[in-house]
Automatic annotation (TrEMBL):
<feature type="region of interest" description="Disordered">
    <location>
        <begin position="24"/>
        <end position="136"/>
    </location>
</feature>
<protein>
    <submittedName>
        <fullName>Right-handed parallel beta-helix repeat-containing protein</fullName>
    </submittedName>
</protein>
<feature type="compositionally biased region" description="Gly residues">
    <location>
        <begin position="50"/>
        <end position="75"/>
    </location>
</feature>
<dbReference type="InterPro" id="IPR012334">
    <property type="entry name" value="Pectin_lyas_fold"/>
</dbReference>
<keyword id="KW-0472">Membrane</keyword>
<feature type="compositionally biased region" description="Low complexity">
    <location>
        <begin position="112"/>
        <end position="129"/>
    </location>
</feature>
<dbReference type="InterPro" id="IPR006626">
    <property type="entry name" value="PbH1"/>
</dbReference>
<feature type="domain" description="Right handed beta helix">
    <location>
        <begin position="312"/>
        <end position="468"/>
    </location>
</feature>
<feature type="compositionally biased region" description="Low complexity">
    <location>
        <begin position="24"/>
        <end position="38"/>
    </location>
</feature>
<keyword id="KW-1133">Transmembrane helix</keyword>
<feature type="signal peptide">
    <location>
        <begin position="1"/>
        <end position="29"/>
    </location>
</feature>
<dbReference type="Pfam" id="PF13229">
    <property type="entry name" value="Beta_helix"/>
</dbReference>
<keyword id="KW-0812">Transmembrane</keyword>
<feature type="compositionally biased region" description="Basic and acidic residues">
    <location>
        <begin position="87"/>
        <end position="111"/>
    </location>
</feature>
<feature type="transmembrane region" description="Helical">
    <location>
        <begin position="647"/>
        <end position="668"/>
    </location>
</feature>
<dbReference type="InterPro" id="IPR011050">
    <property type="entry name" value="Pectin_lyase_fold/virulence"/>
</dbReference>
<dbReference type="InterPro" id="IPR039448">
    <property type="entry name" value="Beta_helix"/>
</dbReference>
């Protein structure tokens, strides 16, 4: 019995010792609500045995000591586990609320991110749509960004693909686009989508020989290229258009013909390339598009580049610092090169040939850049047109065989044109529509109908050191006001200078006229005409023929011709020398003509005043077979006599030669007559 009690006590001690650990594990695993398993009963302390033991002796009869059921086995009481804290329901609720808040915040963040992404996608789509709207609504469009490529189909943004930074070649672009949009094969690329570059993006077209831009009958068919604020680089490539139906270049009249636009902040650099069959013609109220257009604020260079068969070759509209070097603009439907308010443009070696309109047009606001280094030939209108310019400098221009003329100046002020040449032009230079302050310096025209035409609205025209040769009608035709000719040379033209009705304040100084039919002709209705120091050499008809009232002829030397001066209105002639003309001065004016200090050595007639033509001769020398004819009043000391001996000799020698020739001809005829044999008439013989 005692042994059973001992075993029970040991087991009880072990149980009590294990209770704290069990309680701890239970508390950590149990829910917050208290349970019966967490309430441990109080452990009673065993009463001490009177004999100093537990009251039961060990089998050996000894006392055995007191057995303590504690874990130490030393008989002391087992420790009581500390009371567990009672769970707090409010804390648990707070914990649950915090967890719910964290979950809600996570969901809100996800929703915000989704909304941001949706807004970004919507903004991207909106920008793509706006870009699509502003670029002609093409069916297919690609936007090349510095780090992405956007694909737009019928105005919908359908794809955005990241790309590596740096210039983009056509081969690389092909990898980002849907299959039919761009094909590259055997050095030829066919692009069926409009390309729009953005800031920092560069499209390098140098790895192919030919780039064909697809087009068609509708504007949305055009696969045009817009640089945006990026850069387009062409090197050794031919850029043209392609009609997918005919597999030929797109027709000039097609509304869907592609083109190249260099936008503000953008740049086009073309070297050793050709750009052909691009641009649209004006349609209705639209202005059309040139093959290549530099917009305001754009820049770039065209070097050794040909612009052929375009609507207009190239147009610079308020561009900045474009370099044009060895550029050929030819066979365009309209104008070859259009400079409209461009700034700091440099030009050299420009050829504008066989264009349907003008070769080169300078228009828009004046920018101060010189227009130079241009050659034109065979254009449908003028070689060079200058419109609405102030202070323009035109230098080093050569034009030939353009259908309307070499140079047209309209609505321009204070424009200087120097070293200009025109060959075989209907009009070498034409000034009109209130052009004022025009200076023509070292101009040279050859052939054609008229070298210079100054229309009646021209004001303050100066022609200096210029030459006009071989004009079929007139070297210079002047209809404006306040015109000065200084050291001008006219050769072999039907009329050297023709002063048209309505002209006034015309001053001709140091004019040289060689050959031709007439030298200077002043028509009725002109006023204030002065001719000074004229030199006329062997003009066939009249060196000067005038119907301009109060015309003044001062100085000058006239040699040869039919008539030196043919005067049809009141005039004053002072200090002029006439030599070798058949008739020196012929007056048919109803108003008084005054002749002072002149020298006339004529062949047949010195001074001839027809009936009703008053004429006064003062201090002059007139020598001719008939020195004076008609009602001629004399003042001062006049020398009127036969021609000088040298002139008589000049007259006699041709007469002697003529007589000798006639005598020889007569002798030859006589010899031939005597050498002929005369035969008598035949006699009939009778046989009867």
């Amino acid at each position: 019995m005692r042994q059973q009690r001992l075993v029970a006590a040991v087991l009880a001690g072990c149980t009590i010792a294990a209770l704290p650990a069990v309680a701890t594990a239970t508390a950590s695993a149990a829910p917050p609500e208290p349970t019966a398993s967490t309430q441990l009963p109080a452990q009673a302390t065993p009463e001490p045995d009177p004999g100093g033991g537990l009251g039961d002796q060990a089998p050996g009869g000894g006392s055995g000591g007191t057995i303590e059921p504690g874990p130490g086995g030393d008989g002391s009481a087992a420790p009581v586990p500390p009371p567990q804290p009672r769970p707090d329901p409010e804390a648990a609720a707070r914990a649950r609320a915090a967890e719910q808040a964290r979950e809600q915040a996570r969901l809100e963040k996800q929703r915000a991110q989704a909304a941001e992404q949706a807004a970004e996608a919507a903004a991207t789509a909106q920008k793509a749509r706006a870009s699509w709207e502003s670029h002609g609504r093409p069916r297919q469009m690609v936007i090349v960004r510095e780090l992405q490529i956007d694909v737009v189909t019928d105005g919908r943004h359908t794809r955005r693909t990241p790309r590596s930074q740096g210039p983009l070649t056509l081969g690389a672009l092909d990898r980002y686009l849907p299959g039919p949009w761009l094909t590259v094969s055997d050095g030829t690329a066919v692009l069926a989508a409009t390309v729009v570059l953005t800031p920092g993006a560069t499209l390098d077209v140098s790895g192919v020989r030919t780039l064909k831009l697809l087009g068609g009958p509708d504007p949305s068919d055009a696969a045009s290229i817009y640089t945006g604020s990026g850069r387009l680089a062409l090197r050794g490539v031919a850029v043209t258009s392609l009609d997918p139906v005919s597999q030929q270049a797109v027709a000039p009249a097609a509304a869907g013909r592609p083109f190249i636009v260099v936008s503000s902040g953008g740049r086009l650099d073309s070297v050793d390339s050709a750009i052909s069959d691009l641009g649209t013609l004006p349609l209705g109220a639209g202005d059309g598009r040139p093959g290549v257009q530099f917009n305001p604020g754009s820049s770039g260079s065209l070097v050794r580049t040909a612009l052929l068969h375009n609507s207009a070759g190239v147009q610079l509209s308020r561009s900045q610092g474009v370099r044009l070097e060895d550029v050929t603009a030819g066979r365009s439907a309209g104008d070859g090169v259009v400079l409209r308010g461009d700034r700091a443009t440099t030009m050299s070696g420009i050829r504008a040939v066989d264009n349907g309109g003008n070769g080169v047009v300078v228009a828009g606001e004046n920018s101060g850049r010189p227009v130079t280094g241009i050659f034109t030939n065979g254009n449908g209108a003028f070689g060079l047109v200058v419109v609405g310019q102030t202070g323009a400098l035109i230098n080093g221009i050569t034009t030939a065989a353009d259908e309307a003329g070499g140079l047209r100046v309209s609505r321009s002020t204070d424009t200087v044109i120097s070293d200009f040449k025109a060959d075989d032009q209907p009009i070498g230079i034409f000034t009109h529509v209130n052009s004022t302050g025009i200076v023509l310096d070292r101009v040279h025209t050859t052939g054609g109908r008229r070298g210079l035409v100054a229309e009646k609205s021209t004001r303050r025209l100066d022609v200096v050191g210029s030459t006009f040769e071989g004009a079929q009608v007139a070297g210079l035709s002047l209809g404006g006001q306040d015109v000065d000719l200084d050291a001008v040379h006219v050769a072999d033209s039907r009329t050297g200078v023709r002063i048209e009705r309505g002209a006034s304040d015309i001053r001709v100084n140091g004019l040289i006229v060689d050959g031709g039919e007439d030298g200077v002709v002043a028509t009725p209705g002109t006023h204030n005409v002065i001719v000074s120091d004229l030199v006329a050499n062997h003009v066939r008809s009249d060196a000067v023929r005038t119907s301009s009232p109060d015309m003044r002829i001062v100085g000058g030397q006239i040699t040869g011709g039919t008539t030196g001066l043919d005067i049809g209105a009141a005039a004053t002639i002072d200090g002029t020398t006439i030599t070798g003309a058949d008739e020196g001065i012929h007056s048919r004016s109803a108003a008084l003509v005054r002749i002072e200090r002149v020298t006339v050595d004529a062949i047949s007639l010195g001074v001839n005043a027809v009936d009703g033509s008053p004429l006064v001769l003062r201090d002059s020398r007139v020598h001719a077979l008939e020195s004076v004819r008609g009602d001629v009043g004399e003042e001062g000391v006049n020398d009127l006599s036969l021609p000088p001996l040298n002139l008589l000799g000049a007259i006699g020698v041709p007469l002697i030669l003529l007589a000798f020739v006639l005598e020889v001809a007569h002798a030859v005829r006589l010899r031939r007559f005597r050498g002929r044999k005369r035969t008598g008439p035949s006699v009939a013989v009778s046989t009867g």
